[in-house]
Automatic annotation (TrEMBL):
A GO MF term: methyltransferase activity
Domain Histidine-specific methyltransferase SAM-dependent intervals: 57-189
Protein name listed in UniProt: Uncharacterized conserved protein, contains predicted SAM-dependent methyltransferase domain
Organism listed in the record: Actinoplanes philippinensis
Presence of the UniProt keyword Cell membrane in the record: no
Keywords from the named record: Methyltransferase, Transferase
Record keyword Glycoprotein present: no
Listed GO biological process terms: methylation
Organism classification: Bacteria, Bacillati, Actinomycetota, Actinomycetes, Micromonosporales
């Protein structure tokens, strides 16, 4: 494993600002040396159980195809390691064409890894990528890249559950696209009343997940044995905290033993909440719960 580090000085400076408030965004767990720990996590069974099967998404696309041919131009926000994307596009291309693909992500290193895998699997697709922090504002990259045809935007595998403000992210994506573009969104739903807290948290109580969540803090100067990791469920999100075992200096910030730093938060949604988020951020839900299970759902929306 590489020595813990940030991807660039800008990331380090921003991370420090969040560290000062003891709550660091999950996006840093995909960049710098955390790219490697994320890729390890992406191979794990627990992670795959959370990001869900592509069947939910494909069922929604099939419903869309009853009225029109799905777009051949695809933009994705947060493809990550690419496993989910590749599986979905392989299914997609059994029915419909894909000519152009743009992948947008926070980490240049992760995009490079993803781009190599994508081009190996899809040599006939024109593929481009660009850096975008979808939590900070819209991007002009889509408009610069696209042609005149409609675009299908992907935010799949519960990507929308990981930023601090999912509604702002959906609004930023909407303002990066044109009216009448489509969005395929897939989410993990709020657990049923019968599901126990232990079953909710089980995928997160693994060493590989802990390593991935703590890696940005290690890049800040946290010793390997300097904190223990705790995951809890608060009724709407899975929350991970690092609790310092002893005093530590991280990016010049002196922290006392017992300091709690929230380094992971993943929201769960009720289906009605997802629809409300979409409507309030400039989207009109078209296809809802095409293949709903008790845990996951996929929704297709149109940009207003």
């Amino acid at each position: 494993m590489p020595k813990p580090h940030f991807e660039n000085p800008k990331h380090e400076a921003e991370f420090l600002r969040h560290l000062e408030r003891r709550r660091t965004p999950l996006k840093f767990a995909f960049a710098g040396s955390a790219t490697a720990t994320h890729l390890q996590l992406a191979e794990s069974e627990g992670y795959q159980s959370v990001v869900l099967s592509v069947e939910d998404e494909f069922a929604a696309l099939t419903r869309l195809a009853a009225d029109l041919i799905p777009p051949a131009t695809i933009v994705e926000a947060g493809p990550g390691d690419g496993r989910h994307t590749i599986t979905l596009l392989q299914r997609y291309m059994q029915q419909w064409a894909v000519e152009n693909y743009l992948g947008l992500d926070f980490s240049e290193q992760l995009l490079q890894h993803f781009g190599s895998k994508f081009r190996t699997h899809f040599p006939g697709i024109s593929m481009a990528s660009a850096i975008w922090d979808f939590e900070t504002g819209p991007t002009s990259r889509v408009e610069e890249w696209r042609r005149d045809d409609r675009v299908l935007a992907l935010m799949v595998g519960h990507t929308v559950g990981n930023p601090e403000a999912p509604g702002i992210v959906l609004k930023n994506l909407r303002h990066s696209l044109r009216r009448k573009d489509f969005l395929l969104l897939s989410v993990v739903l709020t657990p049923s009343a019968e599901e126990t807290v232990d079953s909710i948290l089980q995928p997160y109580r693994t060493r590989v997940f802990e390593n991935a969540a703590l890696e940005p803090l290690r890049a800040s100067g946290l010793p390997d044995d300097g904190a223990y990791f705790e995951v809890t469920w608060d009724g709407s999100a899975v929350i991970g905290k690092a609790i310092l075992e002893r005093p530590a200096t991280m990016l010049g910030l002196d922290l006392e033993a017992g300091t709690e730093i929230e380094c992971f938060r993943s929201y769960r949604f009720r289906e009605t909440d997802v629809q409300d988020l979409l409507r309030s951020s400039g989207w009109s839900p078209l296809i809802i719960s095409a293949r709903r299970t008790s845990e996951h759902t996929a929704i297709i929306a149109e940009a207003r």
